[in-house]
Design brief:
With 345 residues, this protein is mostly helical. The protein has helices at 3-25, 27-57, 75-86, 105-132, 137-142, 146-154, 161-190, 209-219, 228-256, 269-288, 290-301, 303-312, 318-335; strands spanning 200-202, 337-339. It has a domain at 1-66 and 85-224. It has a two-stranded antiparallel ribbon. InterPro entries: AA/rel_permease1 (IPR002293), AminoAcid_Transporter (IPR050598).
C-alpha cells in the first residue's frame, strides 16, 4: 500500500468513527450533519451548472456533436455501465428504512419520493451537461474526480474549493447511509433475523446505538479493496437482485391478495417495468462479468449462516443461549442500551 493510500485509509477510518459516534449519540445531530452537507453538495452542483450554462453561451458544445463516438455497444458492457451510472442515484430507497421516524408516512413518503427523485435527476443531468462543456468523454473516464478536473480548468486559483465540496458531499453520503442502514439492522434484529442486541436502544438518547456501531464497523471491511469500481459492481449486483425480488414480491401479492388494504399504492406498469429492468441488470452481468457477480453472490452467501443461526435454528443449546446472554449483558452495560418497549402495551 502506498503512502497516499495509507493516508486516505486513515482519513476514511476517522470519518467513519466520527459519523458513527454522531449517529449513536443523537438523532438530531445526525440529521443536522446531513442537512449541512446536503446543502454544501447542492451549492457545489449549482455552481457547476451555472458555469456550464456560461460555457454553453460561449459556444463550448463540441463534445455534444458526437456523444456516442467509440461507444461499446456490447450488452454486457451496457449493463455494467448502468451499474456505474445508477450508483450515483443510490439512496432513493433508503427512506423506507426510516419510515418509523417519518411523520404521516402514508402522505409524506410518496411526496418525498417524487420530489427527491425529480430534483436529483434534474440536478445530476444538468451537472453532466455542464461537465461535457469542458471535459471530453475520454477525459471524464480517465478522471478520478470529474468535478475537480472541471474546476482546475475553469476556476483558476480557486479550483481548490471543488475538492472540499467533493469531500463534504462524500461525508454527507456516508452519514446518510449510516443513519438509514442502521435502522435496517435494527428492524431485522427486532424480527429475530440478527442478534437481539442490535434491536436495543440507548436509554438516554433513544438511538439504536448497537446497530449504528455494527454498521460502522462492518463498513470498514470494504477498505480491503482499493478498486472503487469493482466494489460498485459487487454491491450493485446484490442491490438490484434484492430490490428486484422485493418488487417482484409486490407484484405477487397484488395478484394473490388483490383486496389487501394498501395505504400506498402505485400503478402496476411501474413495478413491471422495474422488474424487467432488474432482470436485465442481474442476468446479463452474470455472463459479462462473472467475477464481480460471483463476488456479489459471495456477499449474499455470508447471510446464510446468520439465517440458520438466528432464524432457522430454533432449539439452541443452553450453552449457546447462556453465551449470547452474557454478550448482550456486556454490550448493555457498555453502551447503556435496553430492549425497545413493546408499542402494543
Amino acid at each position: 500500500m502506498s503512502r497516499k493510500q495509507y493516508i486516505s485509509h486513515e482519513l476514511i477510518v476517522m470519518s467513519f468513527g466520527v459519523l458513527t459516534v454522531v449517529n449513536a449519540v443523537d438523532v438530531k445531530w445526525a440529521t443536522r450533519v446531513q442537512d449541512v452537507f446536503t446543502v454544501a453538495k447542492l451549492l457545489a452542483l449549482v455552481l457547476i451548472i451555472i458555469t456550464g450554462f456560461v460555457q454553453l453561451g460561449r459556444g463550448k458544445y463540441e463534445h455534444f456533436l458526437s456523444p456516442f463516438e467509440n461507444t461499446n455497444a456490447d450488452v454486457g458492457s451496457i449493463a455494467l455501465a448502468f451499474y456505474q451510472g445508477l450508483f450515483a442515484y443510490n439512496g432513493w430507497n433508503y427512506l423506507n428504512y426510516v419510515i418509523e421516524e417519518l411523520q404521516d408516512p402514508y402522505k409524506n413518503l410518496p411526496r418525498a419520493s417524487w420530489i427527491s427523485i425529480s430534483i436529483v435527476t434534474s440536478v445530476y443531468v444538468l451537472t453532466n451537461i455542464a461537465y461535457f462543456t469542458t471535459v471530453s468523454p475520454a477525459e471524464m473516464l480517465a478522471s478520478s474526480a470529474v468535478a475537480v478536473t472541471f474546476a482546475e480548468r475553469l476556476y483558476g486559483m480557486f479550483w481548490w474549493i471543488m475538492p472540499i465540496f467533493v469531500a463534504l458531499s462524500t461525508f454527507g453520503g456516508v452519514n446518510g447511509i449510516l443513519f438509514t442502514t442502521a435502522r435496517l439492522f435494527f428492524a431485522g434484529s427486532r424480527e429475530g433475523h440478527m442478534p437481539e442486541v442490535l434491536s436495543y436502544v440507548q436509554v438516554h438518547r433513544m438511538t439504536p446505538a448497537p446497530a449504528v456501531i455494527f454498521m460502522g464497523m462492518t463498513s470498514l471491511i470494504y477498505l480491503c479493496s482499493t478498486d472503487m469500481y469493482a466494489l460498485i459492481n459487487y454491491v450493485a449486483f446484490v442491490n438490484w437482485l434484492a430490490v428486484g425480488l422485493a418488487v417482484g414480491a409486490l407484484l405477487y401479492f397484488r395478484y394473490t391478495r388483490p383486496d389487501m388494504k394498501r395505504p400506498i399504492k402505485v400503478g402496476l406498469v411501474w413495478p413491471i417495468i422495474y422488474c424487467a429492468f432488474s432482470v436485465f441488470l442481474v442476468i446479463v452481468p452474470l455472463y459479462a462479468s462473472p467475477f464481480e457477480t460471483g463476488m456479489g453472490c459471495l456477499i449474499i452467501a455470508t447471510g446464510i449462516p446468520i439465517y440458520f443461526i438466528f432464524v432457522k435454528w430454533q432449539k439452541k443449546p443452553v450453552a449457546f443461549l447462556r453465551f449470547m446472554n452474557k454478550v448482550n449483558r456486556g454490550i448493555q452495560k457498555a453502551l447503556l442500551v435496553v430492549p425497545e418497549e413493546n408499542k402494543t402495551q
